[in-house]
Amino acid sequence: MIVLLIVLPFLAAGGYLVGVGLHWVPIDPSKVHVPGWVIAICGLAFINAGLAFLDVTWRRSSRLSKGFGLAVMVGIAIVTNWVAFCDSDRQFTDMYSVAYLEVELGPVDEHPGRMAFGIAAVILDIVLVTLAGVSIRKRILQP
To answer: Are 117 and 91 in contact (CB under 8 A)?
Structure first.
């Protein structure tokens, strides 16, 4: 029962984001600054995270939970690459926190924001390519 209290918010948030991204949930268009497919991918990442957690609690080690985890990583990588490398204006805000108090400093130039996301995107891409290579190598070497 406690597992459902943890999983349901992931599934609900993911379902809501998928609904917004696919225009099934009415929302003020002036508040949406990204394409619908990006929002839907974020929602799918949340749904897959919830399903992975649910699957891990039922079975200790499962290919299904690994697949859900991989889907979360791929979704995060796609969104991170979109922020870093796709053409359109980006708006970044600088924040810092002191003793659980967040202070917003204001807008930041687009270049440092894209650089930060670009570094993260390249790291995620390297991790995903490495995971794919290891997986393929294991399948080839298995009798």
So the answer is: no
